[in-house]
Write a structure and sequence with these properties.
alpha+beta, 8 strands, 3 helices, 60% strand
């Protein structure tokens, strides 16, 4: 008797949750852009490109992945960053301000190592690579500028400022950066 009650209660709970899950809009996010930064090492500046992919729920919360490739001045090094984060949005009509909190893994390697083993950049292997873990915060805004006729695809301009922290002594402790890019949100 008790197991029948548990099955019925479980079925009702799953049905209610499934109905509510369908009511929440889900968007796929894709953004690409240019990035520039400065670190706590004196005279260490750089620039590169960034790519972000994610899923946004109810227009206010996203789980996302962001990667970047940057050329840095000191040590003539290449920084490859891979981050996983959560983003909160304020879905206003004209702009969408946001804050992104993330953890990251960054490879820093001299261009000499890149020239000797170019595949190592992609795979994160080879001599001369510093593997670093840290975290960061981005504050930015999205500005929608075009929506397709179905209302499912929205094109955006993006701008954000990012602070990144590394607890180790293998390289700079802090980076600050600016990103500018374009993106699209696809409503499922």
């Amino acid at each position: 008797m008790r197991s029948g009650f548990v099955r019925v209660a479980s079925f009702i709970a799953l049905t209610v949750l499934a109905r509510q899950a369908r009511a929440v809009p889900v968007e796929l996010e894709l953004a690409a852009g240019a990035t520039t930064f400065a670190s706590t090492w004196r005279g260490d500046f750089g620039a590169g490109g960034t790519l972000r992919l994610g899923s946004r729920f109810a227009h206010v919360f996203a789980i996302d992945f962001q990667g970047w490739e940057e050329l840095a001045g000191i040590d003539r090094r290449l920084n490859t960053g891979l981050s996983f984060g959560v983003t909160g949005y304020v879905p206003l009509r004209v702009v969408h301000p946001y804050a992104r909190l993330f953890i990251l893994h960054q490879h820093e390697e001299g261009l000499v190592s890149v020239e000797n083993a170019p595949a190592g950049v992609v795979l994160g292997i080879g001599s001369g690579i510093r593997h670093r873990a840290g975290g960061g915060l981005s504050l930015g805004t999205e500005i929608p500028f075009r929506r397709d006729s179905s209302g499912k695809v929205t094109w955006l301009m993006l701008a954000n400022a990012t602070g990144t922290w590394f607890p180790d002594v293998l390289g700079p402790h802090f980076y600050v950066g600016l990103d500018l890019g374009v993106g699209l949100d696809f409503l499922l």
